[in-house]
Amino acid sequence: MSTIARILVPLDLSPLGEAKLPVAQAQARAFGAEVLLLHVLPLEAIDESGAVSSEEARARTYLDAVAGPLHAEGLVVHGLVRIGPAAATIVEAARELEADLIVLGASLRAGLPRAFLGSVADEVVRLAPCPVMLVQPHLAAGVATPVRSFAEDAARMGPIAQRSLGLRAVEVSRVIGSVGRAATLGTNFRPIRRERLDEERYRRVLGAFKEGISLPPVELYKLGFGYYVLDGNHRIAAAREMGQVEIDAEVIEFVPLGDMEAQRSFAERRAFERSTGLTRVEAAHPPSYGRLRELAEEYATVSGAAPSALGITPERREGIRRWYTQVFRPLAWRIRQLGLARRFPGDRSADIVARVADLRDAERAAGRELDMAQALELFAIQNDAPGGGPGDLPRRRLPLMRRRA
Question: Which of 115, 152, 243, 403 measures 20 to 30 Å from 169, CA to CA?
Answer without folding.
Answer: 152
